[in-house]
Specification:
This protein is an all-beta fold. The protein contains no helices and six strands. Helices cover 0% and strands 34% of the residues.
């Protein structure tokens, strides 16, 4: 899929599509839609050490559906796909299936 490997404690995610119709049935143009907060983890960074020198382990895995902060991360385009590189701390939670 993507040819980017995040470094450190960063995670590469793909935002999931936003609803194009409001709860009242009104079709929303792209400019009126909020950025979706749901995303799928594409790949994990290389890890690192925490503040105590212990190896850092990620709380998420590739393929997990997660809830992310609205304005965190850096948008990147890879192979025509819009992706986002975020710090793991910008992941608010894992969405249960």
């Amino acid at each position: 899929m993507a040819s980017i490997k995040p470094l450190g404690q960063r995670v590469l995610v793909k935002r999931l599509e936003a609803d194009e119709v409001s709860a009242g049935g009104i079709v929303l143009p792209d400019t009126a839609q909020e950025k979706p907060q749901e995303a799928e983890v594409v790949s994990l960074g290389t890890g690192g050490k925490d503040e105590h020198g212990n190896d850092f382990s990620f709380s998420v895995n590739s393929g997990d559906k997660v809830l992310i902060s609205k304005y965190g991360g850096t948008d990147v385009k890879v192979d025509g796909q819009d992706l986002l590189i975020i710090s793991e701390s910008d992941i608010l939670g894992v969405i249960a299936n």
